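Q: I have three molecules that I believe assemble together. Could you output structure tokens for the complex as a whole instead of separate predictions?
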Amino acid sequence: MSGTIHDLGYQRYTGARRPTSARWRVIVRHQLTTAWRTWWRFKSAFGLAVIISFIAGGLLYLASDKLIRSLGSGSIAVTFADGVIPMAMTWYHRAAFLATLTITASVVAGDLQSGAFTLYFARSVRPRDYVLGKLGGLAILTAILTFAGPLLLAGLRLGLCESTEELVATLPVLGKVAILGAIATIVYTVVPLGFSALVTDRRYALAVWAAYYLVLGSMALLAGLVANHGLAALDLPSALERITLALFDVQFVRGKHADIPLATAIASLSIHVVVALGILGWRVRSVRTGGVGGSG
Amino acid sequence: MTAIKAENCSKWYGQILGISNVTWTTPGTTPGRLTGGVVGLLGPNGAGKSTLMKLMAGLLRPSRGALTVFGASPYDDLEVRRRIGYTPEHEKAWDELTALELVTVMARLAGTPRTRARDAAAAALDAMGMTDAMHRRVRGFSKGMRQRTKLATAIAHGPDLLLLDEPLTGVDPVARAEIIERIRALGAAGKTIIVSSHVLYEIEALTSEIVVIHRGQVLAEGNVFEIRRLIDKHPHRIRVECDRPRAIVRALAEADHLSKISIDATSVTLETRDPDRCYDQLAAAVLDGGLVVRSLGSPDNNLGAVFDYLTGTPR
Amino acid sequence: MTAMSAMITIAWVALVRLVRGRALWIALVMALLPIGYALVVRDGGRPDLPADLFAVEQLLLVVVPPMLLAAAIGDELEDRTTAYLWSRPVPRWSVLAGKLVALAPIAIVLVLASWIVAGLVGSGSAPPLGTVAALAAGGLVIAIVAMGLATLVPKHGIALTVTYFLFLDLPIGALPASLRYLSVTHHVRTLAGTKTAALAQLDPQGPAVLALALIACGWSAIALWRIRRIEA
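A: Yes, here they are, computed for all three components at once.
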């Protein structure tokens, strides 16, 4: 028996190839592209962040207006202006939560359901490339909400300073916003991504994340008020808020706020992130070793 | 009564064209008379086959024109949909149900009485060779088993019109032969069956009645051989394998109906615009020259060639 | 087949799929959360415990019914299994009604059971009947809203419903303006009688029932309009 291979004009690609170690960047780019595609995914949260920026920016402008300053003692108005940014941070975090609902909390489960892992692992994509790519892409999206927006406000705050002394005194706000933005970006990227790896159906992954964030979070906050303030650190917004207050040295005077120890808040967020990363790594590795494919 | 009648029927999905200005009628189907049959809906991917199927099944409403099934709009008329059995092209079904439950529910929704639905479902699954697996959940089924279950959902309620969208995709050769046989039997029993496919030999095995659809328009309809005869733009090829091909060339060289003659050591291929005359002259040449003919055939007198000629696809 | 029997058949399918899938168990775990909370804080002597629990149950109400309803409808539309339904002689409204009839009661029962058991565990007594009725009515309306949103955007039904209630319904419900009459959660609080006496006087319970009915009718109309236009 003899065989023949006919030359049909196909030639193996011989040009430059992206090194394996850099393929996670392709996943990052893909994540960004798909997230931007429809109104229901990233754009809704982005729109909310833009609205927040305008409102907070307006408040900042008003607080620094001469007329407003002259109404009360100057120091009170300046304090209000300084308080706008930490207040706006909590709003930006809500926009980030909205993005987790429409994108992050269903990413891995969605890939599992659609059989996308087959496409990834049929190529020379390693589990770590997948994890890095997803984390990178989603972190950029989250950072637009939790990092870029507040940084813009901080810039505006600096721009509205009337004297060099005030500018120098206000300069640290940039660093504080950057630190807080980075922490919020990590939390709002990694934790919901962990939830998306926990449940294999994307709709249920999303619901479990929402229940954890809303129901368990508010229970933890309430339990913190009743029993142990440390418990409230399980509520992600409360833990983030505690770090915000510590960084900006301000206090909220209205609403339910548990007096979470700063170390507990940091520990809670760290544990959340580590556990989520563990779940994510476990799921991707198990998919890689246990076979890939869609559910249907 | 005509089973399906499309008049200037068009369907757009926003800016995308599904089908355009389709006018087509199936042969009549009269209850009690075996006048049904199988019609193959043939076209490349994206030609508009599934759109036409969905319009016939009442899943879509025409953007322009009209499409009626048994004289009524399938989109608006529930009674007409009772007489239709449809299998979609995709595989997704209610995976949590067993095959028997799924087919029973579909039969119930199509109007089969509760008392009869389960038996009808079991019979339909049996007809599709799914008796052993009928109590298993669809989730664990292979592609072929899903296809057969889908077909069972289409036939369980005894419809007069069967619309089968790509019913043989993913089915193994043995099962394919069985399913083809069953579809043919249903057609012979008086059901009107429309089967869509882009796989030529599947349609060829099912029927010689075809509708060729391309870029949303009906290119041709009717018997495949009749259509082939009508395509005078493309000459018919006749290939003769014999001991002295040059003798045939000498005998037919002057024939005005021949447009091309190709010859090699063992065969000659003639391209003619008048096949009947060509066969007559060929027979005379063979007899006069005392040639030994090993084979005689028309390589393009089949569905594949018709399809390629119509769609302009080179083979 | 009558529309009613089609609805019953579709409801049966929805139930079987729910029981054999994971959603019911996930919802059950969610419903257990407030009970766990009541167990943890019952010895804390907090007088606001019932109010806290009710607030938690309201959040549960925002998650559980959408998870069941929006997922069921979204799956159907996204997986294109509607092709089977639309090709049968069943009116389209019966598909929505079947799912609502099967899944909304389960979601409501889960939330109510959670509320009653958490109340018994936390304060040693069953919660007032008014609060139970309020959660039941709220659960039904939220299920209908989820149904409407799932028909509008099948892929993001759950996310949109949670977002809608979190970012729109709850905030406008807290507004001291007539806009709050559009808020489901506001009316649930009114019916439950968890407001201060002054606020309760502002918002009597009778009109709250009517408002909830109107909101439910509005979203049902959206869902029915949309489902008639959806092509498989």
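A: One point stands out. Chain B touches chain C through 30 residues (CB under 8 Å).
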